[in-house]
Design brief:
With 248 residues, the chain is mainly alpha-helical. It is built from eight helices and three strands; from the N terminus they run αααββαααβαα. Helix 3 crosses helix 5. The C terminus is likely disordered.
């Protein structure tokens, strides 16, 4: 009668990590000790980081809003004028087939896209980081800057009192209509362009978060020193069979 064959390299129960067994110094053993060795950030540190993010976002929003002054002046300079004429009884368009009326909206939209791309690039170049609060500050400042540019351009342009302007110009004299915005959706062009460009450059050139592997966490993982060996399949090799039968 031959003795029952025992598979070689069979791991014992001591080779497995006991999740409940305390490690050296009374610390928990196993992977829990590895993760427990990295203390979470304190609430005070989180509050300081939040204050810093909000402060940066507020500065970005203020600077971008002030840039709306430059956009308003450019809009006033580049927007096409709508020519009007009066016959002393009514005011008419001097060119009824002209497209100057929609040209002001198109000019504002193009300026908004350009200012959005430039402001997003400058914000990323200065801070070298992304973040939800920085993006929100950029978006809020862009919308406020667009509103400021709109109001500045209309107030510095020709007077909105068309009747008084026609009387001042005289009969049969062409004068400019007030600078107006008909499609108010173009006010969002700056904000949309700024957020899209900022998110894009952050995704391409922004800092990367470290993503470690299992083997880097305290030597835990497959192939790490001291890791439990995989149990064998329990089928003895042909050499073991031959030696066992010879011994029997």
């Amino acid at each position: 009668m031959t003795a029952p064959l025992t598979p070689p390299n069979r791991p014992s129960s001591d080779d497995h990590h006991d999740w409940r067994k305390p490690g050296p110094g009374g610390e928990p053993g196993g992977p829990a000790a590895v993760y427990g060795s990295h203390p979470a950030s304190s609430p005070g540190v989180d509050r300081e980081e939040l204050r810093a993010d909000l402060r940066r976002a507020g500065i970005v929003a203020a600077v971008v809003t002030v840039a709306g002054v430059l956009m308003g002046l450019l809009w006033l300079w580049l927007a096409p004028r709508v020519p009007l004429i009066s016959d002393s009884t009514a005011v008419f368009l001097n060119d009824s087939e002209g497209e100057e009326a929609i040209g002001a909206d198109g000019t504002f939209a193009l300026l908004g896209l350009a200012f959005g791309a430039v402001s997003a690039g400058l914000v990323f170049w200065y801070h070298r980081r992304g973040g939800i609060w920085l993006t929100v500050g950029l978006g809020v400042g862009s919308v406020l800057g667009s509103l400021l540019a709109w109001q500045l351009g209309t107030r510095l342009g020709p007077t909105s009192d068309v009747v008084a302007h026609a009387r001042e110009a005289g009969k049969g004299v062409v004068f400019d209509a007030p600078l107006e915005m008909h499609a108010h959706g173009v006010l969002l062009a700056w904000g949309l362009a700024a957020m899209v460009v900022h998110l894009g450059v952050t995704a391409v050139w922004g800092p990367r978060d470290f993503e470690g592997e299992w083997g880097s966490y305290g030597g835990w993982g497959p192939g790490a020193p001291g890791a439990p060996s995989a149990p064998s399949s329990g089928v003895p090799s042909s050499g073991s069979d031959a030696s066992s039968s010879d011994g029997a």
